Amino acid sequence: MRKSHPIRRVVLAGAATVSGIVLLLSLKPATDPASAQAAGGAPPVAAQSPQGGAQAAGSGTVTGDAAQTQYGAVQVRLTVANGKITQAEAVQAPKGGQSDQITANAVPKLNQATVTAQSANIDAVSGATYTSAGYKESLQSAIDKAKASAGSSQGSGSQGSGSQGSGSQGSGAAQVRTVTGSVAQTQYGPVQVRITVNGGKITKAEAVQTPKGGQSDQVTANAVPKLNQAAVAAGSADIDAVSGATYTSAGYKESLQSALDQAGG
To answer: Strand, coil or helix: what is 153?
Structure first.
């Protein structure tokens, strides 16, 4: 009987050790501070990401394309915050001689009108017809760029939250394209057309190069706006030549067709 006591003690000690280990293993996952920290820390990080993306969309500075006028180029830059125009300024405007006085009078009024209207639908300033027209053209270009940028940001930001919203916004932004046609050489100088295409339709047309100097300035100022309007209305290069601007019209249609070909139209 005395010899059995040490064996019994060893067996009991071993059983107690095993029970202790099992107990520790069963308790460790619930009391592991690293696991608890990971579980508690992950949700706040995920919640902050969409908020940051939404705040950035529709904000920033965008510069429109330079619009050529009879007295020089006009180019408008916008500051946009949360989809609203907070500031407008002309980074290019006609200079020299009487143009300095006209610019100094007209541009501040056009800037203020833009912020008030929140669009390019603003009145021309009296005595600054050409500057006003160029300003509105460049302003519309800047607005188009801001909208395209905001649409692209929203489309990419919603991809993780829902497939339906991602598909509609992302594809809509991707369809907006600005394409510049090849330069068409005419008897009086080169003509080059740039178009903005949205959903397969021409939403804007403008001439980035036109004949200049002498009588060409007057012919261009008369013909190009009509050709731009006709291109948007027709949605193609099948437009009529402007009377008195045969060469400019032909060059315009040639470059317009080149732009349409590049856009896949």
So the answer is: helix
